[in-house]
Hints:
This protein has three domains: 1-64, no CATH class; 76-114; 151-193, no CATH class. The radius of gyration is 33 Å and the shape is rod-shaped. The chain is built from five helices and ten strands. The protein is α+β, with helices and mostly antiparallel strands and 199 residues long. The chain has helices spanning 54-75, 85-108, 115-127, 144-152, 166-170; strands at residues 2-7, 10-16, 20-25, 32-41, 44-53, 155-157, 163-164, 182-183, 185-187, 192-193. 37% of the residues lie in helices and 26% in strands.
Amino acid sequence: MCKQSEDGKMLATVWKDSSLVFNLTICHKPTAESISRKIRGPQGWQSVNLNATEGIVAYNKYMGGVDHHDHLRANYTIQRPGHRWWRYFVWFLIDVSLVNSYILFKMCRKSAISHKQFRLTVAKQLVGGYSMRSHRTGQKEITELDRTLAQHHTRTVFPGRPRACRLCSKRKLKTRAGRAKKTSDGCAECQIYLHKDCF
């Protein structure tokens, strides 16, 4: 059983298989073709010829490709959950583009390369030598007084166990575990513990 409606180049088809199959196409004609399906009857499974449009025949021929595509996309998806719908849509488009490019790559080249290796190669080529530019902040002018004071302060490594960095404690900076940042470095003049970057 097949019903169809045509509007310009667009053809909408509803075809009854084990369930209803809806098809919307612009590249197939409404001409009917015969398709062989196995149907379970009183005497068991029987092969029956049914009428279907070109679009339905193409769907039955290539529907395994859609499942294969979804499987490849789900293996190494870059989609992440989020509240903004457009981000999900962008991740979906990137995933589909990567899978399509992998399928085309395999068609053009006969070399055996895994899907994972293909994605890693694409990622490395996209990133290339990119590195984030550091934001330059205005440097404070060093006065003669600062130079004189700095001459007396030298960095040293204190013996014994590490202690909390004075500057990190003042800034309330902590480790991921929520503990104080500790160091064995410090200022020999002031006898306070300071990280190399905090000195």
